[in-house]
Design goal:
By secondary structure, the protein is of the alpha/beta class. It has two domains: about 150 residues, NAD(P)-binding Rossmann-like Domain (Rossmann fold), CATH 3.40.50.720; about 230 residues, Dihydrodipicolinate Reductase, domain 2, CATH 3.30.360. Helices cover about 35% and strands about 20% of the residues. It has an eight-stranded mixed sheet with strand order 8-11-12-7-13-14-15-16, with helices on both faces. A six-stranded parallel sheet has the order 3-2-1-4-5-6. It has a three-stranded mixed sheet with strand order 10-9-17, with no helix packed on it. β15 and β16 form a beta hairpin. α7 runs antiparallel to α14, α9 packs across α14 and α10 runs parallel beside α14. The radius of gyration is 25 Å and the shape is globular. The protein binds 6-O-phosphono-beta-D-glucopyranose (BG6). The site of 6-O-phosphono-beta-D-glucopyranose has 3 residues, from loops.
């Protein structure tokens, strides 16, 4: 920005405002190296590296920056760069620009190594020391675990043994910050997540650990906090006095792709309910935090997780529904059933659908059910939070033909058509009194014509800056596991006999309807 003297006081103010705006909007990380373990996997190839490139394209990476890709497959830095260039070019969300790419690609270095080979970590240490010296990275390092979870412990231990991270172990002789991003699933149950937390804590301080849930990086999910806490009209009605119930849906039309091996172990409870769905629930239900700052926000989220009434084993059958898709037609295309997918057992009992009814025992939400559902190969890809309000206390319009009264509904559409809609009753024009529900809509895309960052762009940048607000704390992850444990245990103890129990391309097993309809309510038609 030009620093010439500014003519009038008015213009000076304008300049200061612009600067302030620039400072708050353009958050610039310090020089650093991002070390990606599992760099040849789908996540790194299709998301992390393209998103880092995109941050660079937008001028959001520091001038001194390096990416170290660490994985087992035999690539050189050159062949790896070529491979990820293709991923960037293919990405529908990212604009490829040859010159920007060349600049970015020159910062990528590849290390081929097994995750358990000390030699690999010695080479990593030497490369990082060299990059620190040449580029002035100041020893700042962001480690990213994008490997299968089975490799996490070995990587963390070897980082410490090689002196690249760890409390007071010299950390490669450097003074800069060391942070680690850990992908979900964080453990596979309560016990393993505790054990993993303990292992990570042996090497990293809690303040250096970034447990990622990419849903929290989605613009519309962050907008949920703005919507609730930057407006006054909602707060008074965001309670049991006005809200009848809440529905949270993460519906996917896609199947499991090539991830049969992972999904067979995980299933929908570990893949979506324990993390994405419960995260959305906490953001809808939490109290206003004292500040939008990592621990203040996470304290409130943890309080909600504590207030969710745990399901007693005897209630699991009544309050949950599980399902697995069979063959069917999705978006006009015939698709195989789950049991016919690659690397899935022909008699697999892994659930691909879950619906659950939770209650929150606190003053704000007592008596308001939260219905959560998620499934693969459903009719449509849509993530939505719907707050349904109560009917007016008196029905004043009861003449014949007036039309059915429908309660107000606030729908927060997270994806794909990001926006917010409020349903309310309106008079149909004419002499007669007729009522029809209509929608007042806000559409994210058309309202702000700007390029949205992807969830991973946002979260990578936050981690480089050191902002943990949108990452999960250890107690949050453990509490979320504790809440899903009764479901995992009861389902495992009583294997289903009716799988597959929903056809691909439908809205899930019929029992999911009963779960909500026996309370006199219905799932939203999405
Ligand atoms: C991931 C799950 O965390 O989220 C996938 O492992 C799922 O199974 C994905 O498909 C959904 O993410 P999004 O951003 O496409 O809604």
């Amino acid at each position: 920005m030009e620093s010439r003297a500014v003519g009038s006081a008015g213009m000076e103010t304008l300049l200061v405002d612009r600067l302030r705006e620039g400072l708050t909007l353009r958050r610039m990380p310090q020089p650093s190296a991002a070390v990606i373990f599992g760099a040849t996997g789908d996540l790194a190839r299709n998301r992390l590296i393209p998103d880092l490139y995109n941050l660079g394209r937008k001028g959001l990476l520091p001038g001194s920056f390096a990416v170290v890709a660490f994985a087992r497959r035999p690539f050189t830095s050159e062949t790896f760069r070529e491979q990820v260039r293709e991923a960037v070019r293919e990405s529908p969300e990212i604009r490829y620009d040859a010159t920007t790419w060349e600049n970015f690609a020159a910062r990528i270095h590849y290390i081929q190594s097994d995750y358990t080979d000390p030699q690999g970590y010695a080479r990593l240490g030497a490369l990082l020391a060299d990059l620190d010296g040449r580029l002035g990275l100041g020893g700042n390092r962001l480690f990213y675990l994008a490997t299968p979870p089975s490799a996490y412990e070995a990587i963390i231990r070897h980082l410490a043994e090689a002196g690249l991270a760890g409390h007071g172990r010299g950390r490669g002789g450097t003074t800069g910050w060391k942070r680690i991003i850990i992908e979900k699933p964080f453990g596979s149950d309560l016990e393993t997540s505790r054990a993993l937390n303990a292992k990570v804590h042996e090497v990293f301080e809690e303040g250096e650990i970034y447990r990622i849930d990419h849903y929290l990086g989605k613009e519309t999910v962050q907008n949920l906090m703005i919507f609730r806490f930057a407006n006054t009209i909602l707060e008074p009605i965001w309670t049991r006095q006005y809200v009848d119930h809440v529905q949270i849906t993460v519906a996917e039309s896609g199947g499991i792709g090539g991830r049969g091996g992972y999904y067979e172990e995980a299933g929908v409870v570990r893949d979506i309910l324990q993390n994405h769905l419960l995260q959305l629930l906490t953001l809808v239900a939490m109290e206003p935090p004292a500040a939008i700052e990592a621990d203040a926000v996470r304290n409130e989220k943890v309080k909600i997780l504590h207030a969710i009434r745990p399901l007693a084993p005897g209630e699991v059958e009544r309050l949950t529904v599980r399902g697995q898709y069979g063959r069917g037609v999705v978006e006009g295309r015939e698709v195989p059933g789950y049991r016919q997918e690659e690397r899935v057992a022909p008699d697999s009992v892994t659930p691909t659908y879950v619906a659950v009814r939770f209650e929150i025992d606190n003053w704000r939400w007592a008596g308001v059910p939260f219905y959560l559902r998620s499934g693969k190969r459903l009719a449509k890809r849509v993530t939505e939070i719907a707050i349904q309000f109560k009917l007016p206390p008196l029905v004043l319009f009861q003449q014949a033909g007036v039309g059915a009264m429908q309660p107000n509904m606030l729908a927060l559409n997270i994806q794909p058509d990001e926006g917010i809609a409020l349903r309310f009753a309106a008079k149909v024009p004419g002499q007669a009194t007729r009522i029809r529900p209509v929608n007042m809509k806000f559409d994210y895309g058309t309202s702000f014509g700007t390029e949205e960052p992807t969830a991973y762009e946002r979260l990578l940048l936050d981690a480089m800056i050191g902002d943990r607000t949108l990452f999960a704390r250890h107690d949050e992850v453990e509490k979320a596991w504790a809440l899903v444990m009764p479901i995992l245990e009861v389902w495992a103890a009583h294997p289903p006999t009716d799988f597959p129990n929903y056809e691909a391309g439908t809205w899930g097993p019929p029992a999911a309807r009963s779960l909500i309809e026996r309370d006199g309510r219905r799932w939203r038609r999405l």
